[in-house]
Amino acid sequence: MEKIQVALLGLGTVGKGVYRTLQKLNKRIEEKLGVSIEVTTILVKHPEKHRNFEGNHLITTDFQHILDNPEIKLVLEAIVGVEPAYSYLAKSIKAKKHVITANKAMFAHHGKELLALAEDYHVQVGFEATTAGGIPIIQTIRKLLHVNQIRQVTAILNGTSNYILTEMREKKIPFKQALYQAQQLGYAELDPTNDIEGFDAFFKLMILSELIFHEQPAWSNVDRIGIKDITLRELLEQQECGKRIKHLASLQLIDEQIRASIIPVSIPATHPLYSIEGVDNGIVLETDLVGRIILAGPGAGAFPTASAMLEDLAIILRSLHQSTITVSQELINSTT
C-alpha cells in the first residue's frame, strides 16, 4: 500500500486534533482511499512546550527540513496568525507540495495569492477548515453550486460567541461567567478578542465573499460589532418576546456592491438560524434557482476543524489517485 508522508505546521489545539484524528482514523483512511497517511514532521516554535506530547519525536523547529524532503507530499497548516503561515505555505507550494490550511486570518488576507500560486505550480489548496468548523460550506459552494448564483449569505460563523450567548440566556448568567466557561472548555482562547469582537467571523465572511463574488468588500466598510456589551437583561427581554439575539454575519451583492456585516441581531423563531445553539454554526445561502439552502454543524473545537482538514486531505488524495489512473490509461492507449 502506498504511504503518503505529510507535515504538520503548528501543534496547538487544532494541530493536536489533526494529529490524533489521523492516528485514530488511519485504518479507515486506508480502507477508503487505498493509501496510508503518515505524519513524519511536526513544525513548532517552542519544542520545550511539547515534551509530553506522544509524537514529540517528530518535532522540528526547522521549516527547511520540510521543504527539502521530497517524500513529504502534503503540508497541513494550523498556525495562528498571518505570518509565518503565509510564507510557509507559499514556499511549500513552490516546492510542489499540496497544502491544507485552517488559518482563516491568513487566508482572508492571502487566499487569492495562494490559489493563484498553486495553479502555477500544479498543486492543490484545501481551505475548508478556515470557515464554519465542520460544515462543508467551501466544498458545497465550489463543487456543488455550479449553476446556482448565490445572492445572499446569512450565518453564525463563530461557535464561541454563539455558545456564550446561549449559556447566558439558558442559564441566566452574565457575560463574564459564560466567557469563563467557554475558556475552561477550550472553546475560547485566553485572549478571546477574535471571537467576542467578531474578527474571527469577519475573516470567515471575507473568505466566503472571495469564493462567491470573486472579491471582498473594502474591509473598512464592513460593520463589525462584537457581543461583549450584550447584557443578560437584553437576552431575557428578547426571549420574552419570542426572539433570540444571535451574532450574525451577512453578505450580499446590492447594485454591484458587496455589503457585509457582523453584528448582533434579534431574530424571531421563524428565522432559520433561531435554533442554532451552543458551539454550532449555521449558514443560510439564498440562491436564484434552488432557493434557500441551510447548513448547520459544530463550529468550535479541535475535532470539527480537524474533520474539515481531513476531508480536504481525502479530496486531494482522491484527485491524485484519479490523475494517476488517467495518466496510466493514456500510456496504455498510446501503446495499443
From TrEMBL:
<feature type="binding site">
    <location>
        <position position="104"/>
    </location>
    <ligand>
        <name>NADPH</name>
    </ligand>
</feature>
<dbReference type="InterPro" id="IPR036291">
    <property type="entry name" value="NAD(P)-bd_dom_sf"/>
</dbReference>
<feature type="binding site">
    <location>
        <begin position="10"/>
        <end position="15"/>
    </location>
    <ligand>
        <name>NADP(+)</name>
    </ligand>
</feature>
<keyword id="KW-0521">NADP</keyword>
<dbReference type="Pfam" id="PF03447">
    <property type="entry name" value="NAD_binding_3"/>
</dbReference>
<dbReference type="Pfam" id="PF00742">
    <property type="entry name" value="Homoserine_dh"/>
</dbReference>
<feature type="binding site">
    <location>
        <position position="189"/>
    </location>
    <ligand>
        <name>L-homoserine</name>
    </ligand>
</feature>
<dbReference type="InterPro" id="IPR022697">
    <property type="entry name" value="HDH_short"/>
</dbReference>
<feature type="active site" description="Proton donor">
    <location>
        <position position="204"/>
    </location>
</feature>
<dbReference type="GO" id="GO:0009088">
    <property type="term" value="P:threonine biosynthetic process"/>
</dbReference>
<dbReference type="GO" id="GO:0004412">
    <property type="term" value="F:homoserine dehydrogenase activity"/>
</dbReference>
<keyword id="KW-0028">Amino-acid biosynthesis</keyword>
<protein>
    <recommendedName>
        <fullName>Homoserine dehydrogenase</fullName>
        <ecNumber>1.1.1.3</ecNumber>
    </recommendedName>
</protein>
<comment type="pathway">
    <text>Amino-acid biosynthesis; L-threonine biosynthesis; L-threonine from L-aspartate: step 3/5.</text>
</comment>
<dbReference type="InterPro" id="IPR005106">
    <property type="entry name" value="Asp/hSer_DH_NAD-bd"/>
</dbReference>
<keyword id="KW-0560">Oxidoreductase</keyword>
<feature type="domain" description="Aspartate/homoserine dehydrogenase NAD-binding">
    <location>
        <begin position="10"/>
        <end position="127"/>
    </location>
</feature>
<keyword id="KW-0915">Sodium</keyword>
<comment type="similarity">
    <text>Belongs to the homoserine dehydrogenase family.</text>
</comment>
<keyword id="KW-0486">Methionine biosynthesis</keyword>
<dbReference type="InterPro" id="IPR001342">
    <property type="entry name" value="HDH_cat"/>
</dbReference>
<feature type="domain" description="Homoserine dehydrogenase catalytic">
    <location>
        <begin position="136"/>
        <end position="313"/>
    </location>
</feature>
<dbReference type="GO" id="GO:0050661">
    <property type="term" value="F:NADP binding"/>
</dbReference>
<comment type="pathway">
    <text>Amino-acid biosynthesis; L-methionine biosynthesis via de novo pathway; L-homoserine from L-aspartate: step 3/3.</text>
</comment>
<dbReference type="GO" id="GO:0009086">
    <property type="term" value="P:methionine biosynthetic process"/>
</dbReference>
<dbReference type="InterPro" id="IPR019811">
    <property type="entry name" value="HDH_CS"/>
</dbReference>
<keyword id="KW-0791">Threonine biosynthesis</keyword>
